[in-house]
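Incident log entry.

Two folding requests arrived from the same account within the same minute. Monitoring flagged them as a possible duplicate submission, but the sequences differ. Recording both here for audit purposes.

Request one:
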Amino acid sequence: MRPPPPLGSGNQFHLPVRTGAARSRLCLVRGAVLLLLYSANQQFDTTWSVDGGRKATGRTGAGGPRAVRRCDAAPVDGREGTAQMAKNDFVIRIGGEAGEGVQSTGDLVVQVAARAGFYVLTSRIPPAEIKGGLYEYQIRLANAPLHSQGDEVDILLAFNEEGYDSGIKVLKPDGLLIYDSAEFTPPADSGVRQVALPLTEIAKTQLKFALGKNVVAVGAVGALFGLPVEHGTRLLRERFGRKGEEIVAKNVAALEAGINYVHEHVPGYEQYQLAHDFDKQPDVIVVTGAQAIGLGTLAAGCRHVFGYPITPASDVLEFLAAELPKVGGVVIQAEDELAAMGMVVGAGYAGVKSMTPTSGPGVSLMTELLGLGIMAEIPLVLVDVMRAGPSTGMPTRHEQGDLYLAAFGGHGEAPRIVLACTSVADAFYQTVEAFNFAEKYQGPVLLLSDTALGTRSEAIPRPDLASLRIVDRQTLAGGGDGHASGANGNGSGDFYNFREEGGRYRRYDASTPDGVAPMAIPGEAGGEYTATGLEHNEYGRVRYDVTAHTTMTEKRFRKLEAAVREAPPAYRYGDPEAEVGIITWGSTAGTCTEAVDRLRERGVAVDLIAPKMLWPLPIHQLEPFIAGKRRVLIAEVNYQGQFADLLAARLPGDYERVVVYGGQPFTVAEICAQVEREAAVAAD
């Protein structure tokens, strides 16, 4: 089964205001132009993926969690499926010192493979240090759709001894080790096949081109997998053509040197060739999860982005800094996260779509001003690319540990909407959804991504801009497509529905069914009001009485009640009739997808659901799924089982928690082992 399609810094701060259909059309036109510019002349294969780490299990009973039973990681059978994978699926890991070409090697291999028509999914583990440290780049290639980074490595390319020491732990027993013999020599008893590849020597001595070491490596990898040479040479000409023919010739020579070395010194290299039809060239683009969020931001019509650099969310900020000015937008790097959120709130109040990308520590700093956005009912989007651990933690490692913070972070009762994307392709569409919810329900929306999803590259279907629904806020003059209902109940946003005979504008009119009232743009005649962080009445005037606080609290929460009914469709995969169900969220959906397939091959039927809205909980999606299951597992990458806690509080049940928290994603084998382990216990 295959998943269904998923639904440069500026120096001026200007706030152009357009409302309604005209603005939506302009957003789509500009977004289409940017996508065409961004992916021009690229021909890649289509894929639809998510990302797939050390296990603990337990159960959550009615009314709350039981004691969580934790155990060691299940052993991974590296030989499982080898015969099939030898032809259709390979994982290669490149490891070495940051700065010696690991990332550029991986990026070039991905581009060549995608142009050749392979399905590609990558994961990157950069060092946390500013300079130096181990950099690991893992690439999975296949001739069928991929959903996780793979359990073990088939080929390890070690640039240095540190890359070997880390990568050999996950190299299959029948895997291939390729190492730069000019840098180190691995132990002779490593237990795997070893091939010396003198990358440094070839580049410096043979080619007299030291900088070409990474291109030699690309040629070697391409020769192993059978990647067509013409795709590599064309890519090099596109990348280095502006530097002159001499530089192009040196890089092409480096590519050919790597290819020739494998052909001459690696007997039986043909066994690593991937079967593929090189004639198929679907319409796709290669992007990272961070870039997909950036493209979604553009397509949604956001033209004002403010942020402060933080790993791994900086990738979003840097992408938009380069691309947003091309469509008339502006990116400002603030002095810190507090200032960034202040700018986002101010821009939202001024009438434009605004966003800030950050990670957990940044969200913590932004919570007070997030509360201002909630109290003043100002549309804004906060993208949280989650990372591991509290405080500085492990900035370059993966975890889904910010759900509590996203749903409840802050003081007082502060309702907000929390969405999560399940794949690189989905990151584009959920970013658009985040802006739509923010505009329609006039408040903050938090979009959760994570390190594994944000940093990995995939070839994804080119986004279908024609299918997008762009929502703009309902304005006092009647513009926008938000669905706030006026006093007459027709949702027209008619100006006079929100004014008294005395002419006063009721900005926070509490009589609407969904809690939303039209929002005036500053300077609009008759739309004067005070947007304050203090409690207020329907006119925006400060009030501390019981009636005002009760009325406004109910109004703010009524928006969540309406929004959850419009939750994006949950990701579903597997056998709807299965007695075993897996609930997950975010990028873990990809690993669970492949686990469902692997378990089906073993005769175990499993059903999978991954909601896109995490808060408020879409009970109408989850309850029917749970009702038909004998066993329900909840898989997530955090110690506490945060989503399991939220679900148990609202929908009590006997859930089995499956969690990892070592800084890495789940492996498919770990999910399968847990399903099968519990099934074996039940059978006994």
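Request two (distinct sequence, not a duplicate):
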Amino acid sequence: MRALELTQQFSASISESKPVLTLRQVRIPVWAQAALIFAGALITMMTLIFASPYVVSLDSFFHTRIASEFWRQGTLNLDFPWLPYTIANAANFVDNHLLFHLYLAPFSYYFGDNGVRVAVAVVAAANVLMTWFLLCGIGVRYPLLWTIAFFGLSLPFLFRMLMIRVNGASVLCLLITLHLLLQKRYRWLIPMGFIFVWLYFGFIIIIAFAALYTFSLYIAEKRFEWRPIAYVCIGVALGIFINPYFPKNLDWIADLLITRVDRETPLGAEWRAPTTEALLYNSPGALFALFFAFLRPTFGGGKRDTVENTLMFTALMTLGMVFTAVRFLEYFPVFALLFCAAAWGRVPIDSLFNPRFERLNELARRFAWVPLLVIVGVFTVRNVPFTYSLVARNDDGHRLFGAADWLEVNAPAGSMIFSTGFNDFAYLFYHNPQHIYAIGLDPTYLSFESPELWDLYYSIIQGNEGEDSGRLIFERFHADFVISDKPRDGAFHEFAVSDPYLDLVYQDAREVVWRVIDVEAEAAAENEPTGEELFSGGSGQAAEGAEQSQSDAEARGEGVPSNADNVDSNGDQSE
């Protein structure tokens, strides 16, 4: 009995000296929070990117192959012989995604498709982590909930994060740049400018971000800060001049700027502006975040500061980029999210309602996370499964596989392949790097280097050259094989089936391969006498000429040895 009493007293003393630890009192170290967020994001991205057995999008095939070429060649200045008629020819080639390809190189060379998918999933997860880190840095409440919204912003945004492309790495660099700007770590902008140039030639974006921050700072604090723009420009200049492709990269940058302005050349679908209907359907989360952020001043909380203005301007700038080309959807959504989080996540909850409503303000302080969780949950639950199903339906790995396999076996190394679609290059290069190609990567690459060849190429694939197509492909492009898509290239096929310069050597349900024939050379070969004909005197005309020569010689009294005598005589001399 006495022992029981002592036990109860001890338990009571412990309870009084050390209260029960509640969940609210648990403090997870920052590094552990970061590790958990990164792990969760990586698992999600890996689940999405491996929903299909193939890499996502046609450009992924090009980047996978060229990354392995860096590892195989063992040089930063890559030898690129595959597109001799374009601005990406061997003499002028510049890799405008150099740092991205160097990052992918070991993954691609040793592990192939699966390796590069893991590498891209890591970059995508790093974007999620950096979003959380930036939100924490500017003092946003519930940063984890805002970060989860990353997955519900936009279907194209999330899908493009899974592509084997520079998209995710570029956004990551911009997020780091924003964090450095908002934390006033200006000197670190020099290496960021350098890195961005080696990563992506669209370095004007990072300069614009620094300029928008400087402008926002001037609006809020009425002072001009020159260092952000200056340091970024110094880093960009260093990246351009300290470069394995210098000075060719200067011409390449100028070429890219001009070709993007030249809209007469048909570009890929991603260079078209999206319709308003498509944007509303595919990116409602990002548009909702932008709209809701603009509403915040209506509920009080004072005017916008430097942080909020900077994020507002970056969101508007990237939205403007989207309206010029759908490919820029990899930028806008995350900056719309940051703008919304800065607008609503830092304002005191008490300022949203009239101070007289004490009970309402108390509920707002306690449960402000609930509506945020509901909104984030709705968009995320809609977006993530949709993205998964979209990736799962991806069958890009089958594209041109049969035709490419036939060419790998039957086309000699170094053969010139004329493809009737410039997008076909990514698949063909991936499967057959031993061949060279008439067009690829971008139609402007051919049109800028050789406008006449581009005009001829476009006329041929449109069927405008009719029965002369094969001859022109042979004479002007010096092609050995033509590969075309039956459903896409009906006008070309109409004449190709009867073209004497084109010999059908392979076809499946979709693709066709033609061997290009040198008609004149084959006709000349057919007219040449065979060895037997030469031995017996040749054709009738040749024999008649020989008989005439023999009779003339006999008339002059000269002896003309027979063919047999010639053979014996030569044989005697050789012995």
